[in-house]
Each structure stands twice: as C-alpha cells, then as structure tokens.
Amino acid sequence: IFRFLYSDEVQIGPETVMTTLYTAKKYAVPALEAHCVDFLTKHLRADNAFMLLTQARLFDEPQLASLCLDTIDKSTMDAISAEGFTDIDIDTLCAVLERDTLSIRESRLFGAVVRWAEAECQRQQLPVTFGNKQEVLGRA
What we know:
Layout lengths: L1 H6 L9 H10 L3 H13 L6 H10 L3 H13 L1 H6 L8 H8 L8 H18 L6 H8 L3
Helix pairs in contact: 2-3, 4-5, 8-9
Protein name: BTBD1 protein
Organism: Grus americana
InterPro entries: BACK, BTB/POZ_dom, SKP1/BTB/POZ_sf
C-alpha cells in the first residue's frame, strides 16, 4: 500500500489481491480498491465465481458481485462443480438460489445444494445426517 501511495504503482497478484483490497478499504484508498476490483474482474471465471462472489459481498463490492452472479447464471454447472462452491456461506447460497436466471436443471442444482449441506455439516462438526443437512440449509 505504501508503494502505491508514494509511486502510484501497484503489483497485484492472485495471492495478494484480497489482502490488498482489505487494506485499501481499511485505509480508504479508493484508487487502490479500484485496481483490486479491476484485477478480480479480469480474472473472473466460472470456476472461481462463487469464491469471488463471497468476497465481493464481504467487501461490499456490488458491481463485482453482479458480475459474479452473471457468470454463475451463464455457466451454472461449471460454477457449482468448482471446489469453491461448497465453501460459500448460507447468505451467498440463498442469494444464488433466489435467482431464476440460472442455466441448470433443478435436479442438478438440488444435488449441488446437498453437497453444500454436507460440507456445512462437516464445518460445524455435525454428523452428516438428513436432519442435520436440513438444519444447516435452514431458510435455503
């Protein structure tokens, strides 16, 4: 961040972009925030759309979140097959499930939601049972 403040140069990579975005927001450096969001937008793909959507929601970046949702809409099967899908939080899952623009059959989406519920049970250290899956899905 200091290099950017003094020289207006920035080196952002996949490993540093989220911490850089966090720091830029924390210290109110909008130009650096814009560089980070631009980097994320350029590197947005179906296989990382859910991870980036979670981060966009966390960092209050509605434009990036909208682009992520558009990517998920267009390539839903690829997006839900990605490793990051089962790591999303319940609010992000609900936001996606509320959409009527997903390009996937309901049966496949249901299977993905069950996978997410199983992962959530494990995160909460609950036995993976029907009842617990129902419980972690809650309002979804």
